[in-house]
Amino acid sequence: MLFEKIKSDILAHNSYIVGAGGEAAVIDPRRDCLVYAAVAERAGMKITKIFETHKNEDYVIGSRELARPTGAEILHGAREDFKFGTGVREGETFSLGPLELEVLETPGHTVESISLLLRDRSVSGDPLMVFTGDALFAGDVGRTDLAGEDKRREMSEMLYTSLHEKLLTLPDSAIVCPAHGAGSVCGGNISDREYTTIGFEKATNGLLSLSKEEFVERKVSERLYEPQYFRMMRKLNREGPPLIYNLPHLRAYSAREIRSLMDKMAQIVDIRSPTSFAGGHIPGTISIWREGLPLYMGYYLNYEGPIILVDDFNLDLDHVVRHFVRLGYDNISGYLAGGFAAWFKQGEIVERSGTWSPPDLAENLDDPSIWVLDVRNVNHREEDGHIQGSHHIYVGHLEEHIEEIPEDKRVVVHCDAGYKGSLAASILEKHGFRNVINLLGGTIGWKAANYPLVKDEERVVSASPPV
């Protein structure tokens, strides 16, 4: 039997390939999909089936891309009007040699969500694994807000039924294979466990022990952020994303070319560290560190203007490109040849951001000209506490609330460590703020320096994420 989990870093997306008897199936493939063909080839198997457990919101699905070279059939839940593939219903089974995959309809995260029950008939008729998509995670369950606020209660009720009447009725020994791990935006607090079982989740997952009424109220009141790019993902994944065949080739742009492109709606993304960005950067650029790209590019980049990367040494840009491809940004165009050094060697204008350490902020905290802006997730602010007198706007919603930030103040932005603070500083500068300071170390450094975080006072501009 072939079984392999393929993890996509940062997005915390899990996909799977299973097979026997010379045939294999892929479940929830990513768009850069050659990895599955390589695994199947090593095992001497042919990929004949591709399952999508749901249409997905946080990445571009890879089923069409994988079906092109393999000829495999694409299968997905029949309750959504997909423009490609074949819809499947409760109880349908598919064979891979002695392996059998049975469809369970498990709506709640989305209406068409399915889970796939795996049996190895050569050994036993008992369920061995269940691929749960975004219905059940390790320590968590799927979010139910993405269909809209008006349907949130209905979707929460659906998910409760799917969990308690379908998944939790399986044997305790059944291995749970979810579509996401810790860090994914598709859950509220997914545990950092590689594998789990139905029995372990029954014993440890607090959401599963709630009554239906308690569960629904918990899900209805859950506060989760929805990046703007989710709308594009739903559209692409319903209609079928365009084929890319290979990763895009990045063009090397000179400093002069980039300067001219900035007048033509180009999107310049600086992927260096916050300290490098603060020390000097191209005016009007957005600061998103490499590991933050999948998490935050979807808030601030559009799908039209060419995207150009700025780094120091342009190392391993193919890996960076994968982040863009997985989120459907086929407009990724190129990079600054020679790195940021090429920009200042050309004598171009260099913009700088201010940086402070925690002692710097502590010394100036009572200064009336200082306006402290907390750009963390609101849940982190409430659970961990906040710097006294600070205001809150989540970094992903900064542009929506830009008019609420005083232009006559020195704005000190902070997050947990300084990375999201650099992004926030770049957005403020892009909107004309010229006196912006990023608190390096954020609340982590603040606490390490023995300065207090308080919970008895709230100054929140954007108190909770809109749904």
From TrEMBL:
Keyword Membrane: no
PROSITE patterns given in the database record: RHODANESE_3
Stored SMART domains: Lactamase_B, RHOD
Keyword set, alphabetical order: Metal-binding
Protein name: Metallo-beta-lactamase
InterPro entries for this protein: Metallo-B-lactamas, Mito_Persulfide_Diox, POD-like_MBL-fold, Rhodanese-like_dom, Rhodanese-like_dom_sf, RibonucZ/Hydroxyglut_hydro
GO BP field: glutathione metabolic process; hydrogen sulfide metabolic process
Rhodanese domain span: 262-352, 366-455
GO molecular function annotation: metal ion binding; sulfur dioxygenase activity
Keyword Calcium belongs to the record: no
Organism per entry: Methanoculleus sediminis
